[in-house]
Design goal:
The protein is of the alpha/beta class. It contains five helices and eight strands, in the order H-E-H-E-E-H-E-H-E-E-E-H-E. The longest helix has 11 residues, at 4-14.
Length: 155
């Protein structure tokens, strides 16, 4: 099985998306660290938050701006059920990524995705690429299409 960063690169290539995965000399695990490493404002960092549906048990990936978190009420309304943070071991097992490096693409199994509309305000955004030091830059419209996410208000 391909490594986490390689799975992201393969997913980008398969979708015809030209995005360079950059390995940073410092951690990009948090939005603040990623913004510093990428030289951009924290609002342009895509946080990948993984939740589990209380009723369905399925994972939902929330893509939100690093400048804020997801509002639980809005997230649950968009998901159609109560949500709880997924456990780290479950995230690793079901997405193939460890917390801090969860990419929006390249999961080992399909994950329903919701993308916050505030990300659309930027010409490009930076997303995790499968490791705590790996990121890629992409237009938010391309990220939306690439992930098949539903664009909703999450903040």
């Amino acid at each position: 099985m391909a490594g986490s960063v390689e799975r992201v690169a393969e997913a980008l290539r398969a979708a015809g998306v030209e995005a360079e995965i950059r390995r940073m000399p410092a951690s990009t695990r948090t939005a603040e660290e990623a913004a510093a490493a990428c030289g951009c404002e924290v609002a342009r960092i895509v946080k990948s938050l993984v939740f589990r549906g209380a009723g369905s048990g399925t994972l939902t990936l929330l893509l939100v701006s690093g400048a804020h978190g997801a509002d639980p009420t809005l997230a649950e309304a968009a998901a159609g059920e109560p949500l709880a943070r997924a456990e780290a071991k479950a995230v690793r097992r079901e997405t193939g990524f460890a917390i801090g490096g969860v990419a929006p693409v390249g999961h080992v199994a399909p994950v329903g995705t919701l993308m916050d509309e505030t990300l659309m305000a930027h010409p490009t955004v930076w997303a995790a690429a499968g490791a705590p030091d790996a990121v890629f830059e992409i237009a938010p419209e391309s990220l939306l299409a690439l992930t098949g996410a539903r664009l909703v208000r999450l903040a």
